[in-house]
């Protein structure tokens, strides 16, 4: 698919989703936005739940945010996985109680969809997000999982593709089919997450996960079971494949772009497979019961100024949704010296952090699942990684 | 005075007893109740006496159950075989160095067991300090690996719970009156006979306690299988854990936990009866 | 006849040494990699010696918070278990009362139950009553487990005491409190100390029960578990080493007091 056609497809998809969004029970209707934000005031405090490794160790970004706005931020790496996180916040959110956080980072997927549907998220007042309006890259606006950015704005994105260790694999890896090759028996790593695993199973059949149907799921699951039972899969990983592939315990594995980028080992390469890869996005969103939603909104918008976002991207090494960051990274590289200069130059040139249009064209999102489809989907894919 | 004397034990027991009631008895009852409910995280759960939670859970994850008990059994046997000689030596022959050795055996407990398991991963990795040289010298085939196999999980379990086996056996042997051994020798019993007729039987309460204290946590462990195991080494602990946290399938998870508890407790009681040992508390107390 | 036993003995001795070495090996690995001069996020290849992780121990704010949580929870739960478990142990050792058998059975169940089941049942209760999980729920759960161990050690110590000592004190006119403070307490103190040490060590290392009761509160083992996914930073090894050193010292001191 050429980049041009991809853009057309995006536009089409956007239109279709805008239409379908009208059907979402009017939760994001403008009256809701107005009534939610009515009377909400700045408190000068903000507590933010994020994933580990998603902010500089010295919290430099927060320091400059605090200096700019006077809002004090309590930042916690409280989120490790989406399932457990949802399990933790569900009870207080259902009861209308604060979860102790005003801002959280959730991956597009089952739990975010549930939070949206259950009305656990504050509808965003886009008029108060001028930087988002001005600087969000087109491919991160109006995403399929949250039409019209009604509840979320992207924080960072990543690609699920294949990482392989060139010390052990002597051919070029280009496709998912190679993950199923008996040649690599006992040397393949797959992900245990049902959505990640399911998507790759579907790609391997040539099916687009986003538009896949239950019969496709069954077929994909059968294929994945075959791969497992033939002893090709060494292990189903959550995220510890990084260690395994760089040490050579597995030779090729499903992997996330940012992880591979951060690897010190130059032997490990990352590819977006020819059948397709998954584009996932971690999103900033505000729980409806937040104590300081205005402050949270302020941070969201503040992060969308390229100058504010660039240092974050320089640390996190995932794909930023903010346009214009690459130019800043390159400028920083030109100004820096020594090792830092090398690091920034590499970052500015990296297709893992700034993917090429041809890579982007091959990327798909997870299947969006209604509650009924969700239990069916999980029932099909979840037992595979558990050996059942 | 007599009144307060009669009241005294209740005053002593009440605060602690209440705590145990609220945070152990009630939770177990709630788990039993939850295991018969239907529903999901979003709509909430309702009591419907849905016994299928038990049959569904067991039919889907029965293999994991069997595997857990099997791994637990193997790890316990290995622990017993490894622990007994060491406990014996420390109890009878270590002399003044007794407490030093005991401390050395307990020392792993001062390090987070997650961290210990991670360290094992570092040691056992394919190109690590153990397997790397073995493969380079052609002692093991090139595709041989330990990490991500059942062997690694059982070895990890054995490692983790070994001190649980050493301690009670040591305590039992230490309590043994040396005059009994002398008496056996005076009666011309050989070394082997003395061991088989005197030492071993008297150490059985310790062995019993050790087996229980090893088997229970080993068969319900999930950290070892998660970090050291592969796709075919899932234990019931992993399933229960995932059902609670990843799937929010509380009723089935509760049913599986309850079954696990029932099996293990029933096992302990049958085992205790068969061995004729009364009250684990008497033998586990330091 | 005299040489054979010696040879046999040294074989067993050697065996014990090897077993000990095996037990200590991963700890040595942990300590060693706390001195590893790593550059990336992965700490598994030796890259040179450095002390920087000791000087930058507090550079990971969330790790520091997790460590503080673990320490305070272990301290508080040990204190609470001492306060609640000591009287319970004394009562079981020296009084007959209704519910004694039930209490003993409950204590047995707590010690015999897999941690997974304890955690799962607590989670079931918190979910059923919609109790938000966090620091207080972790503390309550740890205290529950620690009470069981505390009671057991205190009871074991108290049953060995000679009741005539207390009777003598009573005959001499000592009222219950001084009698307890001057006679009973000093006598059971070794039991309390052993129980407290056990409670503290169990609490600070607890992963399973904490995982079920933690909500969004993070303790050291939970943080380490999470970090195994993205690469455990050397500071974790350093913290592990420090806790290890502290616990060993503490045990040596307690052992000496006995």
TrEMBL record, chain A:
- One of the GO biological process terms: polyamine transport
Q: Where in the cell is it found?
A: Periplasm
Main location per the UniProt record = periplasm
Query: Example GO molecular function term?
Result: polyamine binding
Instruction: Write out the entry's keywords from A to Z.
Output: Periplasm, Signal, Transport
Q: Which Pfam families match?
A: SBP_bac_8
Q: What Gene3D superfamilies does UniProt report for this protein, alphabetically?
A: Periplasmic binding protein-like II
Its cellular-component GO annotations read: periplasmic space
Kindly give the InterPro entries that the UniProt entry links to this protein: SBP, Sperm_putr-bd
Name of the protein this chain belongs to: Spermidine/putrescine-binding periplasmic protein
Organism equals Actinomadura rubteroloni
From TrEMBL, chain B:
The GO biological-process annotations, alphabetized, read as: transmembrane transport
Where found?
Cell membrane
Q: Where are the transmembrane segments?
A: 7-30, 69-90, 102-123, 152-173, 194-216, 252-272
Classify the protein's membrane topology as the record does.
Answer: Multi-pass membrane protein
Q: Which residues form the ABC transmembrane type-1 domain?
A: 65-271
Presence of the UniProt keyword NAD in the record: no
Its domain of life reads Bacteria
Give the UniProt entry's GO cellular component terms.
plasma membrane
CDD domains listed in its UniProt record: TM_PBP2
* Keywords for the protein's UniProt record, in alphabetical order: Cell membrane, Membrane, Transmembrane, Transmembrane helix, Transport
- Major location (coarse): membrane
| InterPro entries registered for this protein in UniProt | MetI-like, MetI-like_sf
Family that this chain belongs to: Belongs to the binding-protein-dependent transport system permease family. CysTW subfamily.
Protein name (Swiss-Prot/TrEMBL) = Spermidine/putrescine transport system permease protein PotB
Q: Which organism is it from?
A: Actinomadura rubteroloni
Question: What does the organism's lineage look like at the top?
Answer: Bacteria, Bacillati, Actinomycetota, Actinomycetes, Streptosporangiales
UniProt lists the gene as: potB
From TrEMBL, chain C:
Q: Which Pfam families match?
A: BPD_transp_1
Name of the protein in question: Inner membrane ABC transporter permease protein YdcV
Gene that codes for this?
Answer: ydcV
* Compartment annotation: Cell membrane
Q: Does the keyword Cell membrane apply?
A: yes
Q: Which InterPro entries match?
A: Bact_Polyamine_Transport, MetI-like, MetI-like_sf
- Family of the protein in this entry: Belongs to the binding-protein-dependent transport system permease family. CysTW subfamily.
Residue spans crossing the bilayer: 12-35, 63-93, 105-127, 180-201, 208-226, 238-255
Please give, as recorded in its UniProt entry, the membrane topology of this protein. Answer: Multi-pass membrane protein
What cellular component terms from Gene Ontology apply here? Answer: plasma membrane
Would you kindly state one Gene Ontology biological process term found in this protein's UniProt entry? transmembrane transport
Which of UniProt's keywords are assigned here? Cell membrane, Membrane, Transmembrane, Transmembrane helix, Transport
The UniProt record lists the ABC transmembrane type-1 domain at 67-254
Q: Check the record and name the SUPFAM superfamilies matching this protein.
A: MetI-like
């Amino acid at each position: 698919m050429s980049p041009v056609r991809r853009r057309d497809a995006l536009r089409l998809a956007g239109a279709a989703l805008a239409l379908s969004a009208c059907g979402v029970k009017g939760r994001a209707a403008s009256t809701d936005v107005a009534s939610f934000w009515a009377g909400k005031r700045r408190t000068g405090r903000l507590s933010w739940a994020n994933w580990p490794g998603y902010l500089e160790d010295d919290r430099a970004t927060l320091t400059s945010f605090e200096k700019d706005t006077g809002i004090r931020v309590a930042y916690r790496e409280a989120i490790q996985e989406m399932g457990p996180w949802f399990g933790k916040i569900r009870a207080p959110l259902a009861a209308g109680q604060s979860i102790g956080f005003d801002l959280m980072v959730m991956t597009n997927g089952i739990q975010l969809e549930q939070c949206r549907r259950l009305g656990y998220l504050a509808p965003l007042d886009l008029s108060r997000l001028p930087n988002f309006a001005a600087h969000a890259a087109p491919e991160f606006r109006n995403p399929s999982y949250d039409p019209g950015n009604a509840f979320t704005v992207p924080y960072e994105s990543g690609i699920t593709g294949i990482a392989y260790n060139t010390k052990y694999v002597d051919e070029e890896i280009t496709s998912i089919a190679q993950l199923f090759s008996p040649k690599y028996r006992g040397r393949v790593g797959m992900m245990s997450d049902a959505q990640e695993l399911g998507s790759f199973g579907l790609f391997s059949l040539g099916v687009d996960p986003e538009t896949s149907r239950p019969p496709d799921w069954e077929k994909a699951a059968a294929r994945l079971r075959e791969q497992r039972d033939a002893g090709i899969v060494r292990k189903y990983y959550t995220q510890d494949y990084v260690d395994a592939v760089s040490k050579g315990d597995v030779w090729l594995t499903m992997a996330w772009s940012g992880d591979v980028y951060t690897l010190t080992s130059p032997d490990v390469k990352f590819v977006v497979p020819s059948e397709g890869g998954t584009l996932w996005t971690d999103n900033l969103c505000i729980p409806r019961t937040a104590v300081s939603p205005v402050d949270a909104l302020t941070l969201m918008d503040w992060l969308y100024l390229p100058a504010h976002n660039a240092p974050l991207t320089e640390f996190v090494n995932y794909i930023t949704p903010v346009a214009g960051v690459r130019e800043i990274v390159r400028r920083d590289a030109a100004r820096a010296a020594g090792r830092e200069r090398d690091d920034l130059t590499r970052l500015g040139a990296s297709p893992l952090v700034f993917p090429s249009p041809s890579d982007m064209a091959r990327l798909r999102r997870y299947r969006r699942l209604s509650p009924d489809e969700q239990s069916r989907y999980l029932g099909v894919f979840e037992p595979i990684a558990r050996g059942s | 005075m007599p009144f307060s004397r009669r009241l005294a034990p209740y005053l002593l027991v009440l605060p602690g007893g209440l705590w145990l009631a609220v945070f152990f008895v009630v939770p177990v009852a709630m788990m039993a109740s939850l295991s018969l409910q239907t529903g999901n995280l979003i709509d909430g759960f309702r009591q419907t006496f849905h016994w299928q939670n038990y049959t569904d859970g067991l039919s889907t994850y029965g293999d994991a159950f069997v595997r857990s008990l099997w791994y637990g059994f193997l790890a316990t046997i290995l622990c017993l075989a490894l622990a007994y000689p060491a406990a014996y030596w420390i109890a009878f022959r270590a002399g003044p160095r007794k407490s030093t050795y005991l401390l050395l055996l307990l020392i792993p407990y001062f390090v987070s067991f997650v961290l210990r398991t991670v360290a094992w991963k570092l040691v056992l990795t394919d190109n690590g300090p153990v397997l790397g040289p073995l493969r380079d010298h052609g002692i093991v085939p090139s595709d041989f690996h330990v990490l991500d196999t059942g062997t690694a999980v059982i070895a990890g379990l054995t490692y983790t719970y070994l001190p649980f086996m050493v301690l009670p056996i040591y305590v039992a042997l230490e309590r043994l009156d040396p005059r009994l051994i002398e008496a056996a020798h005076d009666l011309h019993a050989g070394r082997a006979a003395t061991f088989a007729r005197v030492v071993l039987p008297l150490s059985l309460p310790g062995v019993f306690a050790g087996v229980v204290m090893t088997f229970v946590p080993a068969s319900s462990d999930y950290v070892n299988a998660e970090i050291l195991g592969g796709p075919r080494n899932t234990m019931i602990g992993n399933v229960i854990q995932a059902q609670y946290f990843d799937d929010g399938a509380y009723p089935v998870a509760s049913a599986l936990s309850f079954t696990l508890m029932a099996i293990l407790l029933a096992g302990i009681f049958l085992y205790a009866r068969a061995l004729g040992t009364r009250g684990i508390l008497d033998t586990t107390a330091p | 006849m005299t040489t054979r036993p010696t040879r046999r003995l040294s074989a067993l001795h050697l065996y014990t040494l090897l077993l000990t070495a095996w037990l200590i090996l991963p700890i040595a690995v942990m300590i060693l990699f706390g001195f590893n001069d790593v550059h990336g996020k992965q700490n598994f290849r030796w890259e040179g010696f450095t002390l920087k992780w000791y000087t930058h121990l507090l550079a990971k704010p969330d790790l520091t918070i997790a460590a503080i949580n673990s320490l305070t929870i272990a301290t508080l739960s040990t204190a609470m278990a001492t306060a609640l478990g000591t009287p319970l142990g004394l009562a079981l050792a020296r009084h007959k009362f209704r519910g004694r058998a039930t209490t003993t059975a409950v204590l047995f169940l707590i010690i015999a139950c897999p941690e997974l089941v304890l955690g799962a049942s607590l989670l079931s209760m918190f979910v059923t009553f919609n109790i938000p999980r966090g620091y207080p729920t972790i503390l309550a759960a740890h205290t529950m487990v620690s009470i069981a161990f505390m009671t057991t050690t205190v009871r074991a110590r108290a049953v060995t005491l000679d009741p005539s000592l207390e009777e003598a004190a009573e005959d001499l006119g000592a009222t219950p409190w001084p009698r307890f403070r001057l006679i009973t307490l000093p006598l059971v103190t070794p039991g309390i100390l052993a129980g407290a040490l056990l409670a503290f060590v169990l609490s600070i290392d607890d992963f399973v029960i904490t995982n079920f009761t933690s909500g969004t509160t993070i303790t050291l083992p939970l943080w380490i578990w999470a970090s195994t996914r993205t690469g455990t930073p050397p500071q974790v090894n350093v913290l592990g080493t420090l806790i290890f050193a502290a616990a060993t010292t503490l045990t040596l001191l307690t052992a000496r007091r006995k």
